[in-house]
Specification:
This protein has 105 residues and is of the alpha+beta class. It has three helices and five strands; from the N terminus they run ββαββααβ. 41% of the residues lie in helices and 33% in strands. The two termini are 24 Å apart.
Length: 105
Amino acid sequence: MTTVTFYKSGDIICGFSSSGHTSYAESGEDIVCAAISSATIMAVNTVTDIQHLDADVTVDDGFLELKLSSEDAVKATVILQGLLLHLNALVEQYNSYLELKFSEV
């Protein structure tokens, strides 16, 4: 199962981490993993390469994390809310493979 944890400060999402493997299908054919990876990587790339916000990004096998300061999190609100909306839709269809959590920071 993949777990995506959104870091929140009040109502503001100030980052997220994605960890684990969905095990929906074999590597290379796992559409759930591909959907999660594509959405999270797009969010990170938009925040860092389009908005040019100063983000702390960590990438490892089966792990991706984005952390933003409170000030930059406000600037990235729409992107991170869009990611949450997209992942919520995936949870509705694939709740055995994806879990969303929230952590107050």
